[in-house]
Amino acid sequence: MKPVRKAIFPVGGLGTRFLPATKALPKEMLPIVDKPLIEYAVDEARAAGIEEFIFVTGRGKSAIEDHFDNHYELEQTLAERGKQDELEQVNQAKLDAGQVAYVRQMSPLGLGHAVWCARNLVNDEPFAVLLADDLIQADTPTLAEMVDVYETHGGNVVSLMEVPDHHTSRYGIVEPGESNGRLVEIRGLIEKPAPADAPSNLAIVGRYVLQPSIMNHLSEAKTGAGNEIQLTDSMMAMVGEVPFNGLRLEGIRYDCGTKSGFLAAGIAFALMREDLAPEVRERIGRLLEAE
Ligand code: UTP
User: Fold this and answer.
1) 196 pLDDT exceeds 90?
2) Ligand 1 closest atom vs CA 11
3) What is the pLDDT of residues 9-40, one digit of tens each?
4) Which band of pLDDT confidence, cut at 50, 70 and 90, is reported for residue 225?
5) Quick one: fold of 6-252?
6) Does the pLDDT at position 226 exceed 90?
7) Which of 15, 76, 84, 148 is 20 to 30 A from 111, comparing alpha carbons?
8) Sign (positive/negative) of CA torsion 209, 61, 254, 94?
9) Does 99 score more than 90 pLDDT?
């Protein structure tokens, strides 16, 4: 079994739900406290042993490339001013030369299309996909747990969470088979079903471990829900072809592609920080009292 060494970060979307903020700023660069969303995703991939980081970008996304690159002037100034902590934080974000690749999606035709754009970089290896706008607060990094499942069972692995029945039309939903603790066998998948058509209320969170053969399915993929090329449709075509499991998420997932999810994540992550929590708690308390 080949190890999961590569991860794809699809960052080519338009982020229309976050306009006007995302007109000139990539959605994935929106900060949660003081770190952009994409850096949380990269850190999660690092924690799972990922060695190659593949970003599928689009127009107006160059801030993402700059974020993971050297910035000599800034680094020199921080060093001269003795700002060691800040310098360390800036250095921590960097990806080493040869570890990172950027491929351009050109037209945002959907998540499936974005993943397919990375096919020549993935070659014949299994790979992870992380959606930076799905931010996860968990004791053990989610992708690392999924890689463990892959190392035992092989095939495809997705992260799952229960959603209210009336929210199924916002997610990819799975048809579950046998369950064993947090592990769920996957017998089918459907993108954004109406509640009446949903086979369960188990939704896919933006974390995937996929076999490279999905690229063959994506090559032939037609547009699906929302008139986009959906990753879910090609994953469905792999049911029965490879082992296919879901791992129930242990932690909290924030949909930072929505305004309320993004705001909630900002508060939750600030409350976890010793340097910020007391003041943030006090300010929120005062705001609520004033309501
Ligand atoms: P979303 O479904 O959140 O789409 O994509 P979006 O375009 O970013 O945002 P909205 O819906 O218009 O507000 C989930 C992830 O997939 C990437 C996005 O960048 C995001 O990280 N994506 C989506 C692509 O890379 N390419 C696409 O064509 C679509």
Assistant:
1) yes
2) 19
3) 999 999 999 999 999 999 999 999 999 999 99
4) confident
5) Spore Coat Polysaccharide Biosynthesis Protein SpsA; Chain A (3.90.550)
6) no
7) 148
8) positive
9) yes
Test site for ligand 1: of 109, 131, 262, most ligand atoms within 8 A of the Cβ: 131
What's the CA-to-centroid distance between 12 and ligand 1, angstroms? 6
What are the Cα distances from residue 282, in Å, to 139, 218, 261, 262, 288?
26, 50, 21, 20, 10
| Residue with tokens 């790979």, as numbered in its chain | 127
- With a Cβ cut-off of 6 Å, ligand 1 is lined by 10-18, 27-28, 56, 105, 108-111, 113-114, 131-133, 257
Residue at token pair 């998948």: 189
Please give the model's pTM, rounded to 2 decimal places. Answer: 0.96
Cβ atoms of 58 and 9 closer than 8 Å: no
Q: Which secondary-structure segment (H or E) carries 143?
A: helix 142-153
Give the pLDDT band (50/70/90) at residue 227. Answer: confident
Domain residue ranges of the chain, discontinuous segments joined by +: 6-252, 258-291
Distance 131 CA to ligand 1 centre (A): 8
d(CA 5, CA 72): 29
Q: For residue 112, what pLDDT band results from cuts at 50, 70 and 90?
A: very high
Q: Which atom of ligand 1 is nearest to the CA of 12?
A: 25
Question: 38 C-alpha vs ligand 1 centroid, how far in Å?
Answer: 13
Candidate of 8, 9, 14, 116 to mutate for ligand 1, largest count of ligand atoms within 8 Å of Cβ:
14
